[in-house]
Every structure is written in C-alpha cells, then in structure tokens.
Write a structure and sequence with these properties.
S-adenosyl-L-methionine, two-stranded antiparallel sheet, seven-stranded mixed sheet, binds S-adenosyl-L-homocysteine, alpha/beta, methyltransferase, 7 helices, Protein-L-isoaspartate O-methyltransferase, 30% helix, Rossmann fold, disordered N terminus, SAM-dependent_MTases_sf, cytoplasm
Length: 265
C-alpha cells in the first residue's frame, strides 16, 4: 500500500503552453479563465454538482473491488470530477465505467482502463517519487488531470487543435495544477522536457514510436496500446528502461484505443 496524500483541487495552474509552428507562446490567461468559468457554470445541470462526490466514490469503490490497489490512482480518481470533462448531455454517464465521445471521433477512455494503465505506469515507482510524465493524446484532458494529482510535472500532447483547446479550458476550470499542454504530433514525443519517468499513450499505432523510447528516463516506464501483430487488434505494451539503459518489453491484455495518427489537424 502507498501513502501519497491526495492532491486537492483547486491548485494553481502554472503553465499552459501551446506550441504553434514550433515556437512556444504563453496564452493570455484572463479570457481563458473567464471562458472556462462561464463554461463550468453552464455545464452543471441541477444535482450533478451536489451528487458527484458520492457518485464518484461509488465508481472508485467498484474499481477497487475489481482489483485497483494503487493509492495514488485511487486518490486521483476521487479528486478529479470526470463530469466536468464531458459534454453536458453526457454528464449522467460520467461515473459509469464506460468510454464517452468527446468530439471529432475521439473518446474519453473507460475509467477502469485509465485506472489500469495508470497503475501499471506507476508500479515501478515509489509512492514518494516525484515523476515527470509525458502523455500522448490529451483528448479532453481528464487523464492529464489525474496524472497531475500525483506527479511533479505533466506534459500532454494533442494533434487535434479543437481538443487541445477544449482540454485547456477544462483543466483551467478545475485548476488542475502543473500541466503543460502541447499542440503537436505526439509520435515525436516532446524532447524539450525529456527524459520522462513515465510515458503513457491514449492512442495506439502499429508499434511504439522510437522517440518515446529515446525520451524514457533510466528507471522509467512506458505504457501504450500497440498493434498485436495481426494488423487487426491492439494489446497493452509496457517498456521499462533498466538501470543499465537496456529496454525491457512486456505485453499485456488486449485493448481497443483510437488510432495514433501522424501530423496535425
Ligand atoms: N487521455 C484522453 C483520451 C483521448 S483519446 C482523455 O482523457 O480524454 C486519444 C487522443 O489521442 C485523441 O484525442 C486523439 O486526437 C489523440 N491522438 C491520436 N494520435 C495522436 C498523435 N499522433 N499525437 C497527439 N495526439 C494524438
């Protein structure tokens, strides 16, 4: 069992950076803050705000019954309001163990799959470790918010601009802490902040892109969906960088994630 205290919201959002055309620009915060506040007000249907804590608790209890043990992941799932990351028409389903559409053909992953991947990612790291984490596929920002609960820093990359922007507003609305959002092709990783103690992908390609492996710190672990070799299915792949620098790969259960695409959109 681990004992990291849960990170509580609100926290200060120190860095939200977008990368356009290779140069990094700090976005003006005030209009974004206002827009985020406006949005969070308009997406709170009666009752959900009041009930979400206990509804969320029921989801966490279910995941614990199904085998979730990592206290860092449990605390994060308790802390992050998943209903604030989905469209208002879907908030009633936000605490079911189901994936939900977030627009542009993408989905927020099932909580049990998110929990499983985060627990796998954290397994080699002590509860006290202050991790630098890279996420590929920001989507709506939910998983990035979870990771921010137990990490020193999070860099999260998204290739679809509208989702990158939506995630920024979502994370600001809950004051999600130290999350650096990058608009870019995640297949390249993000060299400026490398190396990372943990790398997690929410989209799967035929194999694990070489830059992710290059950007993985010694003692670090990568978790990603990847092709199962048949050309049709995906499996969860874990890659550890051992103390001597070598990579060790293990293959886990079958999964189904959206495709890892190249380029920007
Ligand atoms: N972690 C997300 C899940 C989003 S689904 C959440 O909590 O909502 C996966 C995301 O990966 C999609 O938004 C998709 O656009 C993105 N994606 C796919 N290929 C990518 C790439 N090469 N670089 C960055 N993002 C990518």
């Amino acid at each position: 069992m681990t004992s990291t205290p849960p990170r509580r919201f609100p926290l200060s959002l120190s860095q939200v950076v977008a990368r356009d055309g290779g140069s990094e620009v700090l976005r003006p915060q005030r209009p974004v803050d206002d827009a985020a506040r406006e949005r969070s007000r308009s997406m709170q249907p009666a009752g959900v705000g009041l009930d979400s804590h206990s509804v969320r608790e029921r989801l966490v209890e279910r995941l614990v019954r199904e085998g979730l043990r990592d206290e860092r992941v449990i605390a994060a799932l308790r802390a992050v309001p998943r209903h604030r990351f989905v469209d208002s028409a879907l908030v009633q389903q936000a605490y079911e163990d189901t994936s939900l559409p977030i627009g542009l053909g993408q989905t927020i992953s099932k909580p049990s799959v998110v929990a499983r991947m985060l627990a796998l990612m954290l397994a080699p790291h002590a509860a006290t470790a202050r991790l630098r984490v890279l996420e590929i596929g920001t989507g709506c920002g939910y998983q990035a918010a979870l990771i921010a609960c137990f990490s020193r820093s999070v860099v999260s990359i998204e290739r679809l601009k509208p989702l990158h922007d939506k995630a920024r507003a979502n994370l600001l609305a809950i004051d999600a802490g130290d999350v650096r959002l990058v608009y870019g092709d995640g297949r390249l990783g993000h060299a400026p902040n490398a190396p990372y103690d943990a790398i997690i992908a929410a989209a799967g390609g035929d194999d694990v892109p070489a830059p992710w492996l290059e950007q993985l710190a010694v003692g670090g672990r990568l978790v990603a969906p990847s092709g199962d070799g048949s050309g049709a299915g995906q499996v969860l792949v874990v890659v550890d960088r051992l103390a001597d620098g070598r990579l060790q790969r293990s293959v886990h259960e079958a999964v189904r994630f959206v495709p890892l695409k190249s380029g920007l959109a």
